[in-house]
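Lab notebook: predicted structure, single chain.

Context: the supervisor wants predicted structures on file for every construct in the current expression panel, including those that have not yet been purified. This is the next one on the list. No modifications to the sequence; it matches the entry in the shared construct table.
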Amino acid sequence: MTGDRKAALVTGGARGIGRAVAGRLAGAGYAVAVVDVDVEAGQVAAREIGRGGQGDAIFIRADVAIEADVETAIVAAVRHFGGLDLLVNNAGVNCRKPLAELSLDDWQRVIGTNLTGVFLFAKHAATALKVARGAIVNIASTRALMSEADTEAYAASKGGIVALSHALAVSLGPEVRVNCVSPGWIDVSATRPGGPIRLSTEDHAQHPAGRVGSPEDVADAVLYLAGAGFVTGANLVIDGGMTRKMIYV
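Prediction complete. Output recorded below exactly as produced.
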């Protein structure tokens, strides 16, 4: 940690949910390490977060599926901040193809980034987090609970994150709490190339909450779990109630 300020590391922090999480944590007083493979977007995110937040923000380039990159990122963050209080595993990719067209390379790329990356960061951050009696928040998905066609690799990776989270909670407790957030439909288009997409009234109406989610909704959940001292091993579903709605055609 930097002085009296807690320190967090957010993977996939350059855009989308990760960018919102990193900004929310900085606004709450955390020093933040933004980790991403996109150097340009990551550097921009760290600069903007540093200006808008209350604390320090740095960018670290890393591929979360490569163990050497992960080790280097953890060492760099701990050295810069003097410790680590919170790890947010958010980095993820998708590959939507019919099962017959889904190659082993496609499968391994999704599993490597989405699931193996969570394992690697938890493994290498565990020592620093134990010293801080810190927390891990993993970003899963409601795709761990429900599916569309042709999403086998993504669904498997996100289901694995839910299971890995409660396993880590048992293995690392009581020093480190581990939880996950499963977002539903979150509109991240504002931070993507091409800018915001136009959502329809029907898009919003599918949700009992009356709207599609925003990255800030997930960021609020992460901040809650970062400080919820009696919550560990939990999967917090943030989906506007969509997975609870029965649909008949």
